[in-house]
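Predict the structure of Transcriptional regulator, LacI family.
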Amino acid sequence: MVTMRDVAREAGVSKATVSYVVSGSPLISEKTAAKVRTAMEKLGYSVNHTARALSTARTNAIGVVTSFNEDGCFDLSAGTYLYGIAAAARRHGYDTMLLTGADGVETIRSVALSRRVDGIVVLDVRNDDPRIEAVRESGIPAVLLGSPADPQGVDVVDSNFEQAAVSLVGRLRDGGHRSILFIGWPESVYRRNLNYAVRFRASLLEACEAMDVRVDAVYARDVTLGASEVIQRALGDHPDATAMIIHNDAAVVGAPQAFERMGVRVPEDLSVATIVPVQLGEGMQIPFDSVGIDVEAVSFRTVDRLVERIAEPGLPAVVELLEQPLNVKGSVRMLHGD
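Done. Here is the predicted structure for Transcriptional regulator, LacI family.
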């Protein structure tokens, strides 16, 4: 059977371009669309009749399923992801509908039954997220922006937090540091099993063990802009620390001021490495060596995959973890030879 991939190869375009032509997207030029239609005719490609019937009833809207944090946690990155998803959706000719509710499972079942959107992006993914089963049962096209322990055949797009943890530990280990402080999110975030926090911490602990680096974890009491108090508390409890890794957006933003108040010089007194969204790091001029999470790239790839899934529901499921670069800004002191 001829597939979209075959048509894309014949036309010399991407599979996504073929799906846009099939769905009648105005984003594709007539010249390119004609080339795709010629390839379809040559190969005898025909659109699935069920998919065609569904396409005539499309809403040209995608839903973003999120939830308000039960414990009142404030996430600096949330707005950046929502903006990125909305911008990517507009590029494909889709509107965006924000879907919130205390019961995410029921939200997904309801939106699938009412057919208010053509597909959904699921945010705030937990390692054992019950919403995944609701996606599978409803059959609604979906992409998880977050990597759970078992995606159950649902598409996943996210940053490679595992690789980021290994990269940061390796950066400090190569500098001669054998003991580090890990500044994490509030413990409630880990209790909620939010995948990005759980995955990064697990990989960091594994990397430290593999590289023979001691790690002491200290957790923020909240994730507001006052979260930098955790830095003062951590250094008070561990005054001989020479290195610190921060995975907590608010603590990263408040860290320069916290160090200044404490008279701590970076990197002379303390080496610091972080993981932070690129857009936040650049906007706040974060001066630390960081793995920068490109939220825009992750958001755009998530929506691209959802559009592909809407156009061709039978595609095999994928798990795409985007690797993010380590940006060196001179905040890690090399202890060799000291």
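The mean pLDDT is 89.
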